């Protein structure tokens, strides 16, 4: 069955994505599914300052104990939809009890993991000496993964760094890279700033290595002419306007893999600095243009780019090409649909 005919069959596949928006991925995947004529919507319980788009939202902290919400889920949302694509170990109920209901109703369900919902420090340190994690309570992660995977046999992760944390739990693990709408990112690799603008936008300063980055910037300021912007607590739309002006993007120094900020930077034709562990360097495509830097080397890597400003446009061009090849939402949403075919 082809992608097009899948949604044009007598019984249309109605998909719900929920219930936590991570780096705009729920919305972007849903947009990709809609491109292939598959009805898809997002349900976000956890709105934050980034203010990503969502079709509809429920304030779980306010309504989760009300009978009205339970009746809505049981009488409308669940019966009216065919496949549930959950994210970040969340589902319709805070305790994931709905996974039992959905399984009993033979509703296809898939879980999409994104990072701190599965990342365990002991496993991370096996392949990454600079690893840090947001959640230190490994037993709680293990317990939740065991429960979820006892109800769901398929999961998706964006890269092989996260595959390591889930492969012992799920029967089937699929890797689909994070995705963006490339048309929404202005591509301009030409350097325009007389003083190069370096941008860092941490959502979690400890995990992103922000103290090391700020220290490196302070050490370099007396010796080089450049500007530095630390973007914090801004909406995604506001932050993106700053990214567009950047000459160099700095993502994260501890995880060992790159995230959406790196992808956005590459899509805009920016040279990106991000720590890529030796383990992940072997997993990514060989043409990965990201400049790898860890807490010990970040100063030297920034200095190297400042000394070779003429090289920035060429790195930016390779970055855009890489984003087009591996992170286009239409291509990757087609891969999601192929996974749906396996589980319906």
From TrEMBL:
Domain of life of the native organism: Bacteria
Single GO term (MF): glycosyltransferase activity
InterPro entries: Glycosyltransferase_grp1
PANTHER family cross-referenced by the UniProt entry: SULFOQUINOVOSYL TRANSFERASE SQD2
Protein name from the UniProt record: Glycosyltransferase family 4 protein
